[in-house]
# Entry
Amino acid sequence: MSISVSSYNYSGVRKRKGRTTEESRLKLFGTTLKFAIPFCILFIAAIVRVMWTSQSETLNKEIISFENRVGDIERETENLNIMIEQQSGKNILAQVKRYNLDLHYPHPGQIRKLESITKAKKIETAIKQPPNPKPIMVTQGNGLKSQGTASKY
# Structure
């Protein structure tokens, strides 16, 4: 086994590295900053992007929940308005049309305007007629009903 050793012969005086000076430290720091600043900017941009997307997702979820709540409240108000109209009698004409009832407005001769209670009493006494032994039957014009269902009532 042999060991080979090689040596380089330098002509002249060997140059030695001097001790690190402030200038070399500043150059090293400047080079480090040149590489570190772009990486920091990219890292901060990525973090900001992730924060914005997470915030936008949470806002979208809140918007959807608020829209659902608004839809529920609107549906409830519509139902309540329908109930109020049905109880107050304002929706009678719409119900007549909806259920195809053959009801019509009264003739002008059937309507009388009462101006006060005393005049109303005078009109009632003047209009009183003997009771009719055969009352008038009002029927709907929807066709004949079967005898089986009529006999149950």
User: Anything to note?
Assistant: The mean pLDDT is 76. Residues 22-100 form one domain. Residues 120 and 126 are 10 Å apart (CA to CA). The chain is about 60% helix and 0% strand.
